[in-house]
Write a structure and sequence with these properties.
Layout (H helix, E strand, L loop, with lengths): L5 H25 L1 H12 L12 H29 L2
Helix pairs in contact: 1-2, 1-3
Length: 86
């Protein structure tokens, strides 16, 4: 059975999540009302009275956090998969 390269898969996931974070953040900056509506639909909530608070610190910490967390999660899944398929 084929083994997965857990490190490469984790790094690829982290890079893709970073790109998605950049795109999503750009949408929040350029079309905030539409993104608030989409977020409300995703959370099954009425966010009409809410407002975005986009600062560089939040942008960078979210970029790093979600990229690292996603990369580590996929690395762990690939490592467990490799053990189970051995």
């Amino acid at each position: 059975m084929m083994k997965l390269d857990a490190l490469k898969l984790g790094l690829a996931t982290a890079m893709i999540l970073a790109i998605i974070w950049l795109i999503c953040s750009a949408f929040v900056v350029f079309i905030p009302a539409a993104m608030m509506q989409v977020s409300g639909h995703m959370l099954h909530a009425d966010l009409t009275g809410q407002a975005w608070s986009m600062h560089w610190t939040g942008f960078l910490s979210g970029l790093i956090f979600w990229s690292v967390l996603g990369g580590l999660l996929v690395w762990a899944v690939a490592a467990v998969y490799n053990r189970l398929s051995a």
